[in-house]
Amino acid sequence: MKAVVFDLDDTLFDHTASATQAVHAWVAELGGTPSDELIAQWFEIEQRVYGDWLTGKLTHQGQRRARIREFLPLIDRPVPGTDDEQDNAFEPYLTLYRGNWSAFDDARPALEVARSNGWRIGVLTNGSTVQQNAKLEQIGLADLVDVVCTSQSLGYSKPAVEAYQLICEALGVEPAETLMIGDNLDLDVLGARAAGLTAEHLDRAAGVTLTQLIRSTRVP
């Protein structure tokens, strides 16, 4: 191996915890009652409309507006009528989300082990370039990452073969020399393997950690 590529959300960056804390606080600010059911509905809406952005059906800001239009009625709040009003309605959640950004405890140690192996380090993420880079900066990992490729910057999103090939090119390595690690089996493992990379599934529910996956990969 000469390089390792990490997914970002729910691999290095704890998106689920950050968003859950933000929705809890936001709903309370709006006078609603946070609940596990509401959180689950938020994530269901998020996943569905985010997919519409990745396929070009919505703009990035458009998927945020779509979330507002679908979620506010669930807490009996009126939906603003104009785009600007919907953007303003989303902003308090976004501020809370940013305020709760955090890395997993094993993220920096794993990157440091990869660096000690002499590997190049990349991040491949289906997200917006500005926001994903801001996450890496705020959670204190940007200094250990050589290349960040987003679906927005590449014009391809995982699991398109081109996404993995392009980040390998950016890192100056061949796919066969590259390890991909992520929490999503389809996007981060099966997609990467189809592009010729070695790929490992980060199954945190089974007790797997990033450092375990890095240390278990043979170094020539």
Automatic annotation (TrEMBL):
UniProt-listed Pfam families: Hydrolase (PF00702)
Gene3D superfamilies noted in UniProt: 1.20.120.1600, HAD superfamily/HAD-like
- Source species, domain of life: Bacteria
Picking any one GO molecular function of the record gives: hydrolase activity
* Keyword terms of this UniProt record: Hydrolase
Listed InterPro entries: HAD-like_sf, HAD-SF_hydro_IA, HAD_sf, S-2-haloacid_dehalogenase
The molecule here is called HAD family hydrolase
Taxonomy-wise, where does this protein's organism fall, top ranks first? Bacteria, Bacillati, Actinomycetota, Actinomycetes, Propionibacteriales
